[in-house]
Write a structure and sequence with these properties.
heterodimer, A: 381 residues, D-Maltodextrin-Binding Protein, domain 2, 4-stranded mixed β-sheet, 14 helices, B: 308 residues, alpha/beta, 4-stranded antiparallel β-sheet, 11 helices, 14 strands, 35% helix
Amino acid sequence: MKSLRRILAILRKELVQLRRDRTTFAMVVMIPFIQLILFGYAINTNLRHVPVAVVDQSRTGLSRALIQMVEATQVVDVTMRLATVAEAKRALVASQVRAVLILPPDLPGRVARSPALGLAPPAATGASAGRPVGQWLVDSSDTMVAGAIKSLRNMPLSELFRQTANRAVPTFEVALFYNPEQRTEVNIVPGLVGVILTMTMIMFTSAAIVRESERGNMEMLINTPVRPFELMLGKIVPYIGIGLLQMAIILGLGYLIFDVPVNGSLWVLLAATLLFILASLSLGLVFSTLAKSQLQAMQMTVFVLLPSILLSGFMFPFDGMPGPAQAIAQVLPATHFISMIRGVVLRDAGMAELAGGMIWLIGFSAVGLIVASLRFRKRLD
Amino acid sequence: MTETVVRTSGLTRRFGDKTAVNAVDLRIDRGMIYGFLGPNGSGKTTLMRMLTGILRPSAGEAEVLGVRLPGNAEPLKRQIGYMTQIFSHYRDLTVLENLRFAADVYGLTRRERRRRIDELLRIYDLTEQARQMAGSLSGGQRQRLALAAAVLHRPRLLFLDEPTSAVDPESRRAFWEQLFDLVEEGATIIVSTHFMDEAERCHRIAILDRGHKRADGAPTELMAALDANVVEVEGANLRQVKRALDGQAGILSTAQIGERLRVLVDKAIADPAGHVRQAAALGSPASCAVVRPNLEDVFVSATRRAAA
């Protein structure tokens, strides 16, 4: 009873302080909003409008038509027209363009014999039969750019002669579930909840206890009957509400701006988010007992935030990562949560499907809270 | 029958190779104001922190209100009040919110809380500031808030670490009157200070110097037992007289106070005034007489002797 009253006293105090701390309060709302807009628009694995140069050695109507067709795919924008291959390579080095299309002088002949026309293959007449009609020189250091250009490799040429494409029957039929239009935002927005909660929850709590020491309040607190566990609990509860608010902002705006649906049960969503918030907060508390200043607490937050963005599957598919990276990612609460929230939001996954991740988060929180309470001593030495 | 509230033996605290408190023995009885007198860095704060249990001694032990230290200090928390040297309440909370927080943390019921806070606001003259942010209070108001918060749960033992260092003289006077009121109500108070006039108000004091306890007792006892005579020289060219006296045999210290020079003379010297007159080769217009020692003389003598 007395213990509860002390927890409530700390909770109430935190809320009043939070309300008066305009900067933090603004961050609570602005961080999710701004990050959502930034990530939602900026992260796009569907690469378009790559600047390229053209070296047209053929200078025929056919070559101009071909260049127009290539531009019409919207994958590339022809920003430079150059005379020689050497100039084109310089433009590549200078990063003025990411790729160069070279159309050889014998373009019309090559096009006529190209199987990409979709005409019946002509009888092979010597070495010139079935040669590519042109060449792409690609700055392939960025694999995404390279991949986009590679997608042009088998571009059909039939439209050159206003013929309907002779579509071959594909080997496999691919049915795209959950994101049939292949919009990156559908994957990014739910994941963003994990990234932003990792950032704000760890940041706020890791600073919470250090702040008491920095402002000199700790010496007063440790001379009162407050127990470490009560202090920890009273400090993190207000942030649980903040975390849920941030999740609501991200998913709500994600629905309004990027048309990302919430297909799953709100209760499952709530349960998964609560557990993740708890895990992040307890990690923040552990940092709080380790850090000597708010600056150090911030640095520790970044230490966890970066792998949470890069390794959690938020930006790059988890399955493509090498073993050690996967092992590190498995420890991070964000990895489990991002996979869970994508499950709930996009695939309507239920408690049963998410049990593994939930158990991990519960365990993580428990260990974190215990470590933080043990590390926090009501002493100055 | 006096009850001992604090007893320490050989209490020592080292930070690295620096010894902040060195083998201090204390006995503090109930119902008194006990002063730790010493300059900055003499170990007053460290000693206090050890007695409240937030700092563990490197050696020695203490018994505070029957609780043995080092050991579990939690049972102490409810019975002690602690006013830190630097204001340690929340600057972004109002006076009322700070007091409510303290009341809840100490487990007062809602009714007790209201009554007690009203009473404290009245006693410590903070009623008008009740809804003001603690950060915007003046030094004196802040100090009264800190004292109010420290005594809110009616502690048996109150620790005040340099409580008046940021406060004007008038507020200091009022503050000390309030301390005697608390003692009347049954509290024991341990207060640290580097002001002689404050130390003189204490029932008993301990003189601390570089971690050592140099002397302890009632201020009047200490003044009576001073093992030196005090000679006051009045006249012209006192700086010159001081230079002539410093370092002479039997002269412990000299200090100018306005138009007078206060000289501590070794007790072994039979005629202290004559000794000073002779040592300084004073002319006739100068007056030279033995006067009553004050606490500063005690302090200087106690710390001088140790340094020698």
